[in-house]
Design goal:
156 residues; mainly alpha
């Protein structure tokens, strides 16, 4: 079996879009553990570690707590174990917990979509008001004798 490639924290940060500080914090709180250390003591990560960090990164905008992140990662870790797979009853409980997280994630996504729609509507309202103001201002300048419509530059 070929040896898995290891990456230093800088490369992992670049690939995940997370800061070095954030990755170190996740290590401190137990969400991620570097797969190895170099002879010099540098953290070394694998593709599996990068995937784990991406799961964490995707949970952040959905306001999952660190404890919820930890629990979900434990569930997925346990379901993914090959050498000591969970018994059928444990697997069923784990799948139920995973499904509960899925439902929460979907509900939070729907909430974010609704908030985004309101924000986009607000931005459109502001654009419309700016356009109305610009048209009114242009109409007013054209009505002023000697204004920009008459070929004299405005002072604005």
């Amino acid at each position: 079996m070929a040896q898995e490639r290891h990456m230093q924290i800088g490369e992992v940060a670049e690939r995940t879009g997370l800061s070095l500080r954030t990755i170190r914090h996740y290590e401190e709180v137990g969400l991620i553990v570097p797969s190895a250390r170099s002879k010099g003591g540098f953290r070394l990560y694998t593709e599996a570690d990068v995937s784990r960090l991406m799961v964490i990164r995707r949970m952040k905008p959905l306001d999952f707590s660190l404890e919820e992140m930890r629990d979900l990662l434990e569930v997925t870790d346990r379901l993914g174990v090959q050498d000591d797979p969970p018994a059928p009853s444990e697997r069923e409980r784990l799948r139920e917990r995973l499904d509960a997280y899925r439902k929460v994630a979907e509900a939070r996504c729907e909430t974010l979509r609704a908030r985004l729609a309101m924000a986009e509507d607000f931005a459109a309202t502001l654009r419309d008001r700016m356009n109305v103001d610009a048209r009114a201002r242009a109409a007013g300048e054209r009505a002023v004798p000697g204004g920009p419509a008459a070929g004299v530059p405005s002072r604005d």
